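Hi V.,

You were right to ask for the full record rather than a summary. Here it is.
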Amino acid sequence: MNLWPRHDHEDRELAALLRANVVYLDELTRPALWQPTTHPCIFAVSTSLTQAGLYHQAIECDEATVCLSSSIHGLHHPDTLGARYNLAVSYSDAGRVQDALNLSERVLADRERLLGPHHPDTLDSRNGLALAYDAAGWLQDALNLHERVLADRERLLGPDHPDTLSARSNLASSYGHAGRIRDALKLRKQVLADRERLLGPDHPDTLTARNNLANSYSDAGRVQEALNLSERVLADSERLLGPHHPDTVSARSNLASSYGHAGRIRDALKLRKQVLADSERLLGPDHPITLGACANLANSYSQAGRVQDALDLRKRVLADRERLLGPDHPDTLTARNNLASSYGRAGRIRDALKLRKRVLADSERLLGPDHPATLTARNNLAVSYSDAGRVQEALNLSERVLADSERLLGPDHPATFTARNNLAVSYGDAGRLNDALNLRKRVLADRKRLLGPDHPATLIAGNNLAVSYGDAGRLNDALNLAERVLADSERILGPDHPDTLTARNHLLHVRDAAAAHQPDTAATPDRQPPSDVPEQPA
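Predicted structure:
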């Protein structure tokens, strides 16, 4: 095991050779590597395949390991349970969400029965099932289980055990998925403080905690704090791990995201190009992380208004993901969704609409009708209907998305706010100006209450309400609100942020309309489909 590189990127050829040697040695000597217990090198093969991005091969390896362990040790041996746990993880990596969920539930039940509810392996399985619930979109079930895992680990292992810190971090992620942004931010701060105290400021786990806190700042709309922390994480990673370590490349990608949120589009684009070059060199052109870097570069092209560059790159990402991950992997669905966005921005409305319909059908078939990603696909199809001038279909679907979001995510989830905002756009398109105005008032009030008055999403809601005032002929109200939104945008985001430019442009239209004493017909409300998805996880 000492020969095995700590990370596959350090020597990809050696890692591949060691995998082949373990398989060959096992075939020659079986069951020597399985007695009295399974040798770690057996499990290392699957881990190495996963690090190399060879998810389907990892599944084949884990399925073989489960079969052999069951034959040699028996179905209820801890090594067999461990092999089944690993197989569930590989299912998840390969996008087989339901298979991962089903197997995780069975492994947890078996470990609770055979090892007891408080065994460390049982706690690991409980955590694994919570992650499977997250992937399946069962957000409340995931959150409940993450809370139990944290309570169990604090009680059994102590508040400062590394596994307890990991459980705390996972619960923070679950809070974020559930839209509980303030709870996530509070817990992220605690995790970082704990890791700095216990591991020191330069430990890799501390860098990860610092990066996660930067993400929570971004979710909370604290753009400058997120940017400052992302810059520190990258500097620390370059100093401690080196400029070419995968964690450093990931930190570089996260800083690019922060630049994008701060409206520094050129800086984001430059860094995205570097991340893609680094990923291709370190991991190879076909690694899933490299495909994510390529997708993120396409997103930056889109932000920069380079519509054709974004479209060309998204075609490549989709083709690569279909070839490497399969047509039904969640990442492939994301690539298909983002290509549809590019078609829409390029004016290819029919192509966008056709692809949006496929994404929704795939999402409903693979993830279920109530998965958050399916709600997003449904929302985006409504946008495409609107772009195609199919106003009533857009309105009907927008109403369904809002009802589904309120039922599944709750009335105060950020995605529900987005659905409410987009329904207001549909009301406006349908000429139901009072309905649009009333809904926009609610969106602004909700975002102020839950996100705060200075969150970028709150500023967008204010700008959109100003548009509705203009549509309704209430030009003084539109003018007053547009002036406040611009002043706030300049103060919070800076004078050159894209959202500030939008607010400034809208204010000019309102002033012109007020001077002419006619409704503001030039301004367009900001429909918010979460369509350009950053695809490399932080």
